[in-house]
Write a structure and sequence with these properties.
By secondary structure, this protein is of the alpha/beta class. The chain folds into two domains: 167 residues, Rossmann fold, CATH 3.40.50; 164 residues, Rossmann fold (3-Layer(aba) Sandwich). It is 41% helix and 17% strand. The protein has a seven-stranded parallel β-sheet, sandwiched between helices. It has a six-stranded parallel β-sheet with strand order 10-9-8-11-12-13, sandwiched between helices. Helix 4 links the parallel strand 4 and strand 5. Helix 6 packs across helix 11 and helix 9 packs across helix 12. The longest helix is centred in the last third of the chain and has 18 residues. It is globular. The two termini are 13 Å apart.
Length: 344
């Protein structure tokens, strides 16, 4: 089984991490792979090189498309893939018509179907995106739910001293791009009403200056740590007490299953993806989006009720093991690829 992965993507991001994790898991399972991607994430490229996964670099320019089309064709000619897996909408526009029967478009969001017109197969990461694709007219037998997994190896907790956080103080971790959709502004307002709690925000993005200014205005800058983009997510999760995920918009949200895999209690807003994934009061506390009081109250409950925190952790572990392990992903992905090959 030979799988070609094509992704444009950002330098950092959730979907990009999901694609990287997929390549890692499939390589460990012995699947031959080839990647066409941008050059901007050196860590990701180094991981592929360490796995002996060949890479062709491309610009994925929407206006001058010829070089990227030639790069994808080069990979096809050299690798002769059994399956072509196009991750997200921009990559999908470079799918080869001649290989349509062997091509899968991957949806991490509600992308326009025309972006994947040269893909006969469609893989979605949530049941609601599956529903959306079928509603656009794709035959039911060509749409598949493909769960991601949490790529978290056991890690030594990040020392709290390195984060200027006292031992024993409640530490809340939030991870994601510093963008308005992630609602870190709501989280800052919530933490302002939790005296003694510290907040670690791991990520970069256009809202960084505004969020730092907000922390100053709320007079909580001494309890908030802006950590930038981090590759040591597992160590940060091991060090924190609670993981907060307050997004206004989230088609899935890998932080949910990462929190479960890390054994940390999760407080999450009811954006579409998390609302479909978690069970309130069972494996997470689910709160309304953009509701400072509800988010603050949920965080306070977890901080003050050790039995509740332990229940969320135990049930979250069960939810993770039932559906979101690496082994479950490898089986689902290779089963899908086998179907594509047999059909083609």
């Amino acid at each position: 089984m030979k799988v070609l992965h094509v992704i444009a993507g950002a330098k950092d991001g959730g979907a990009e991490s999901i694609m990287r994790d997929a390549v890692v898991a499939l390589a460990e399972a012995g699947v031959a792979q080839y990647v066409v991607t941008r050059a901007h994430n050196k860590t990701r490229l180094a991981e592929f090189a360490a796995l002996d996964v060949p890479v062709t670099l491309a610009q994925f320019d929407n206006f001058w498309r010829v070089p990227t089309s030639l790069a994808v064709q080069h990979a096809v000619d050299v690798f002769q893939p059994d399956v072509c897996h196009y991750w997200m909408a921009r990559a999908g526009t470079f799918a080869k018509r001649s290989l349509r029967a062997r091509s899968i478009g991957w949806y991490g969001d509600y992308y326009k179907l025309r972006r994947f017109r040269n893909c006969a197969w469609h893989a979605a990461m949530t049941p609601d995106i599956v529903r959306y694709i079928k509603g656009e007219g794709v035959p039911e037998d060509r749409v598949v739910l493909l769960d991601s997994y949490a790529n978290l190896a056991p890690a030594t907790p990040t020392p709290r001293a390195s984060l200027d956080t006292p031992d024993g103080a409640p530490a809340i971790l939030a991870l994601g791009r510093l963008h308005k959709v992630k609602a870190f502004d709501i989280l800052l307002d919530a933490v302002a009403g939790l005296p003694g709690a510290y907040l670690w925000i791991a990520g970069t993005g256009p809202e960084e200056a505004a969020l730092k200014a907000q922390a100053d205005k709320l007079k909580i800058a001494d309890r908030v740590r802006f950590l930038g983009w981090r590759e040591d997510r597992a160590a940060l999760m091991a060090a924190c007490d609670i993981i907060a995920f307050p997004s206004r918009y989230e088609p899935f949200g890998n932080v949910t299953i990462e929190a479960w895999a890390a054994g940390r209690p999760l407080v999450v807003a009811d954006a579409a993806g998390p609302a479909q994934t978690v069970t309130n009061e069972h494996d997470a506390l689910l709160v309304p989006k953009d509701n400072v009081a509800a988010l603050r109250a949920a965080l306070a409950r977890v901080i003050g009720d050790k039995a509740l925190a332990q229940k969320l952790v135990e049930n979250g572990t069960g939810s993770y093991e039932a559906r979101f392990t690496k082994a479950a992903f490898v089986k689902a992905a290779t089963d899908l690829y086998a179907r594509v090959i047999a059909s083609a």
